[in-house]
Amino acid sequence: MSRSVLVTGGNRGIGLAIARELAAAGDAVAVTYRSGEPPEGLFGVRCDVTSTEDVDAAFGKVEAEQGPVEVLVANAGITKDTLLAIMAEDAFTSVLDTNLTGAFRVAKRATKGMMRKRSGRIVLVSSVVGLSGSAGQTNYAASKAGMVGFARSLARELGSRNVTVNVVAPGFVDTDMTAVLSEDQQKAITASVPLGRIARPEEIAKAVRFLASDDASYITGAVLPVDGGLGMGH
């Protein structure tokens, strides 16, 4: 049966790959986007996840179009990389507000319908950086590590209602974020990955699809690394 799915930040990169993967599986998929245009073939809703009003309005539009959200993928995120010694306070708080508090806002809005239905899937897109750390990314790493504690606590809250909450932790992925790195930086990154390459967005999407499927009905509170072995042991 087709489910109502919402992917935040679903107009490019990993989010778009996730949205396409779930749509190909037969789900009705909506995506939020902050700028630009919605991707072709998907129901797009403009939304800034740092605004509770935006989030509530976006959910209202999705519910009117395809019904209450049954699968939520919290993917929207930003980076503002710099060393902590010279990091402006706004560069720290704004990254947490988008990545972590944004996930809180959309999850809170989604759980109400899921609890009533006694069914649902929530997948948060974290990062290997949240598990292993990365110099120059204290803000980003803190936001992504926070997702793990948030997801595991929520998994305990919602387990009795048959709602699962899991985390996917990608490593380096071929997206706009990594495209800006120099050739030397990309070579250094690739050399640090046991599988010797960076991931395709579609490989992250397939992991999300699994966690959102019936095959993962007994998995909750889990962190699934999709990082080529980069963060093993964390």
UniProtKB/TrEMBL annotation:
Active site at Y140
Q: Name one Pfam family in it.
A: adh_short_C2
GO BP term (any one): fatty acid biosynthetic process
Q: Which SUPFAM superfamilies match?
A: NAD(P)-binding Rossmann-fold domains
The pathway is: Lipid metabolism; fatty acid biosynthesis
Stored CDD domains: BKR_SDR_c
Identify the domain of life.
Bacteria
Could you confirm whether the keyword Lipid biosynthesis appears in this record?
A: yes
Q: How does it associate, per the subunit comment?
A: Homotetramer.
Q: Relate the protein's function as given in its record.
A: Catalyzes the NADPH-dependent reduction of beta-ketoacyl-ACP substrates to beta-hydroxyacyl-ACP products, the first reductive step in the elongation cycle of fatty acid biosynthesis.
Looking up NCBIfam families in the UniProt record yields: 3oxo_ACP_reduc, PRK12826.1-2
Instruction: Identify this protein by name.
Output: 3-oxoacyl-[acyl-carrier-protein] reductase
